[in-house]
Task: inverse folding
């Protein structure tokens, strides 16, 4: 499974959009940092907040619906990112 994560499905792996190859060496606007942390931590925060709110309050059916919805949003986030790059 980890091989599929590192496989470049839709883009040329040698093409860099911004022209810079290193994260800490290139000047970036402040909002890029927000998107960077949201991209990596967003799904974890989404699942954690759903769990903290719904602990011992929801039925199994509602849990399944929310977990499926959060998973679909996470897959859509990373799939759209692969299409845009």
Result:
């Amino acid at each position: 499974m980890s091989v599929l994560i590192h496989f470049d499905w839709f883009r040329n792996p040698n093409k860099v959009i911004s022209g810079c190859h290193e994260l800490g060496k290139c000047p970036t606007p402040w909002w890029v940092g927000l998107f960077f942390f949201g991209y990596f931590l967003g799904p974890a925060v989404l699942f954690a907040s759903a769990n903290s709110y719904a602990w011992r309050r929801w039925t199994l059916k509602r849990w399944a619906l929310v977990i499926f919805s959060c998973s679909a949003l996470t897959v859509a986030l990373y799939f759209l990112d692969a299409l845009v790059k």
Remarks:
- The radius of gyration is 17 Å.
- The mean pLDDT is 77.
